[in-house]
Amino acid sequence: MPLSDVEPRLDSTDPSAQFAAYLDYYRAVVARKLDGLTDVQLATSTLPSGWTPAELLIHLVHMERRWFVWGFLGEQVDDPWGDHAGGDPEGPWQVPGGVTVVSLLDALRAGGQRTRTVLAGHGLAERAAVGGRFAAEPPTLLWICFHVLQEYARHAGHLDVARELADGALGE
Q: Which Pfam families match (predicted)?
């Protein structure tokens, strides 16, 4: 995953390549925004909602896996809601004891590679498998790509605010 701060501008007209590039870009944005925060800052909330930068990171790791692996591919995954307290999809984000930001960043990168493989091997018009996340009426891969991309964009913006409040850092 490149750590470029330049928004991707591919010459390709392949939408799958565009999605892969933008998802790589936003993963890199998240990694950059976390870089330089102390362990205390990573584990401390600066927002009334109470989430920490480390909790946002674990959410992104699980979110991408929920949509592409458990959702689109229909593969069973361990603890799909492991980013939420008690595994409750409505519970607050939580980082289990012993899980480090370094290991979460590694998982984010590995998940990105898995997503690239999915995008390279499937058409955007394909519907997700039934039996993983979806029992009926699964969305298309195109819909999943848009959903995951907007999740990354939204949460990268949230992290902008959290980082500014933590240490004054601005920008990407």
A: MST (PF04978)
| pLDDT tens-digit readout, 108-161 | 999 999 999 999 999 999 999 999 999 999 999 999 999 999 999 999 999 999
Assess contact for 80 and 33: CB atoms under 8 A: no
Domain ranges (residues) in the chain: 31-167
If one counts every other C-beta atom within 10 angstroms of the C-beta of residue 9, the result is: 7
Instruction: Report the distance separating Cα 112 and Cα 65, nearest Å.
Output: 9
**Taking the model in full, what pTM does it have?**
0.93
From CA 128, how far away is CA 36, in angstroms rounded? 38
CATH number of 31-167: 1.20.120.450
For the chain, the farthest-separated pair of C-alpha atoms sits apart, in whole angstroms, at: 46
Q: Determine the 3-state secondary structure of 140 from DSSP.
A: strand
In one letter, which amino acid is 139?
Answer: P
Backbone dihedral angles phi then psi of residue 93, each to the nearest 5 degrees = -65, 150
Query: Residue 164's CB: how many other CB atoms inside 10 A?
Result: 14
